[in-house]
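FW: tagging you since you asked about this chain on Friday. Here's the raw sequence from the shared folder, copied in full. Didn't touch anything.
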Amino acid sequence: MKSRCHVAVGTVEKVKAEAYDGDIHIELLLDRGQEGLLSSGNARVGGTLILEIIPWDRSRVLVPEAGQRIEVVGPWVDDTAHGWNEIHPAWWISAGTIEPASQDELRRVDRLLRGLEAAAVEDDD
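HL: got it, structure written out here
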């Protein structure tokens, strides 16, 4: 963990629901002056900062659309599995809509976390 609570501001480039763990994966093009939040690995995702909304928070954290300018708050972490920096989980996002996780998504991620279901191979696009 790089910071327990951090704020980032920028424009949403891409929003994608991740079927394997139920997270909403967001690519944020940061406003000028925030480049220090990125690592060299963020170049693999177009130089964006990755944001993740976990399934349990989807009933209270707004999911933005591509093109929206947003502010996000959450822990700033080094995702060692992917080699990039991200805000994970996003605790608050300034714009978007509420998109609660389905019961099936919540059950699937619970089984994944308990080791009852194998993790699927995720794609990084």
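FW: The first helix runs from residue 103 to 113.
HL: agreed, and The chain has a mean pLDDT of 92.
FW: great, closing this out.
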